[in-house]
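Hi! If you just cloned this repository, the fastest way to understand the data is to look at a raw example. We've pasted two of them here, unedited. The first protein comes first, obviously.
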Amino acid sequence: MNNRALVVVMALSLIAGAGISPSVRAEEAAEGKAYEVKVPAELAKTVEPSEKLAKAGKIVLCTELGNPPGAFLAEDGATPKGFNVDVMSAIGPVMGIRSEVVNYPFASIFAALETGKCDAVMANSAKTPARIEKYNFVEYMTMRLGLMVPKGNPLALKTFADLSGRRAAVLVSSTTERLLKAASEKAVSEGKKPIEIQSYPQYTTGARQLELGRVDAFIGDAMSIGYFVNIAGDKFEVGGMPIDPLTIGIVMRKDDSHMRDAVQKAYATLYKNGFIEKSAEAWGMKGLVEFCGAEVPCP
């Protein structure tokens, strides 16, 4: 394990985010449900919106409200919260318009974007070659992918190769699922057992399967694994972070460069005024991700 991976693994066991729920169980938002989010009081208009956004008076951002600490519902089952929600709630106001957050499962979130149900997607989406061909990205951070396992790691699961013949929970239609399927195919080609992949619509559901002993590992990103390790007390630990950092971005349609430019300027403003760092610290993300794009180019 290199030094960067070691720092990430150590940080995962130490995070303590403000306002984090003490349970891996989360209320589920209805698909397509829209939420008006609270406007951060300290924000003022500093960026011009695109003509389309100005005419609408709002920006509609799709996310998956079952992915803590990025975006999920508070204990009241009606209030979105999390790091991604903080950022989405601020993107509109710095352009002098409203932000509206709409919930979609990750498996259907890009279809919602393509059909115009939202202007942008912010759901820890990795910048992959296939997505670059179809969408515009505003890059904002990088983070690793890895394994969460029961405390003590009784099966010594550290890499995807170790999952041969084991059960693993993963988010459906995610980059993580794609990589896990590739690892399973590789295992089979080497004469080993395939990975029993169980795909779920929300990270919270996948983590719950590990808690109940229905899978041997939960596979996800450092941000989400860190959250679950923290709130579950002594139930979970990090098995390993074997996947090098992926670049994460806000995703928009390819045919609207004005939208991308406006969102990029809005995010850069939030980064420069300290809003991004403040939110990340509040949600226990320090040491788990690297921010980029606004002032430092992403890899």
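Ok, and the second one:
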Amino acid sequence: MSGTAVGIDIGGTGIKGAIVDLATGSLLSDRIKIPTPKGGKPDGILATTVELMNQLQDLEPDAPVGVCFPAVVKHGVTLSAANISKKWIGLHAEDLFEQALGRDITFANDADAAGYAEASFGAARGVDGVALMTTLGTGIGTAILHRGVLVPNAEFGHLEIDGYDIETRASNAAREREGLSWSEWAERLQKFYTALERYLSPDLFIVGGGVSKQHAEFLPLLKLSTPIVPAVHRNNAGILGAAALAVHTIPPLS
């Protein structure tokens, strides 16, 4: 993998982007972050993404662009809407972003992009088996990688556990909203990761999202048979994966 590309990561609270060196997975520009417009409606998110692109310095006109998004994405259509407006459901979102940006893009689920980044440049690289990426943020995203091949649109953050959609109880947003201690939050995460072990028997768990920089506060509290490690690229994984996907397809990872 060589060259450069733009990665844009659209989340429930922020839209982030940068120019990425695809050989190393490093950022070649400052990471720009703009708050996601309140309500997360299509017009607002599209306009903010254009604003972000316009702020990138030294952007080559023909640079590939990847955009990752908090939704199930099939054939460029958003089939769900996690922590954004329900108006995204059923939209030909890839086409809308291409029209707004005036260029071709690659469009993918945000957790898939983060997992792809960790398989390309991080903790899942070279794992001989199943690596499961989990992103703990506004919601909970998941991505399955088998020997580097991504299985798109795994939505295990919406597992029902104890009668709840687990991301409403165990996301980092839930921790902050309810003022949970690290140990209280770890009890909820324990149920989530135990269920994933039962269903998927992974060889490695990877934990991403902004809270992963504080991994020492909660990962040691989990009692699992599967090794669990923080994402190498923390909250930049979505940007890196979106950029990498702009020049590769899903699946496989070569």
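That's it. A detail worth noticing about the second one: The chain has a mean pLDDT of 92.
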